[in-house]
Amino acid sequence: MQEDVRKDFLPLVSETWWFMTWLTRTFGILLLLAALLMIVGLPVVISGKRLLFVIVAIVYYPALAFGLYRFFLYQKRIRKRVVRKIEVDDQGIHYERADGTTDKILYSNLKKYSLSNEYDVSISPRHKTYILKVNDNGSVAEVDFNGMDAGHSTYIGNLKALRRRYIQGIVYFRPDLRINPLVYDVFYINPVDFTFDHKKFWISLAQTFTIMILFCLVLGSILFGLVKCLF
Prior knowledge:
By secondary structure, the chain is of the alpha+beta class.
């Protein structure tokens, strides 16, 4: 029976959504430039007199240069861990990273917890979202579909489908594991056929875009005021 399931359980590979890739990159660059402008111009705003500005600048700008240097070193290091491709198959999930290594969380390595009131597959809050949590060979492992570790090289358009497929694989190949019902709720998954609840998703997306628009309006107002102060 399980062999028939494996034949029907075709591999699912991450797909790049190029429009969103360039949109997020452009927005990210503009956001970084705006933040840099605000940071560089901060001494000018807080220093009303030229002498005070010189004193503040002597301490502030070397510290800023050191901070930017550390930031670029961090980015250089983290870029090596960026995920290039995600694949979910009948064995588990595979992350292909920029440095050529591949990380795996296999169904066969998932373990049960000894406590009867503890789910073997659950969720964990992280950065105002939820991430899938499993027991991988006795260690707690987070099955990351959102690039929490180091991000993705491009915007992956079928992340939700990859997550659903991995959870479906747990149900098919590891029916002995107990899955927290909240897993299906927070990821909008139908536990019967593993389809996606589009209505709940679009409501959540509309709320997110509303927050982004409000943030951009506030940021634009701050930048406009800063430019007026500088010029």
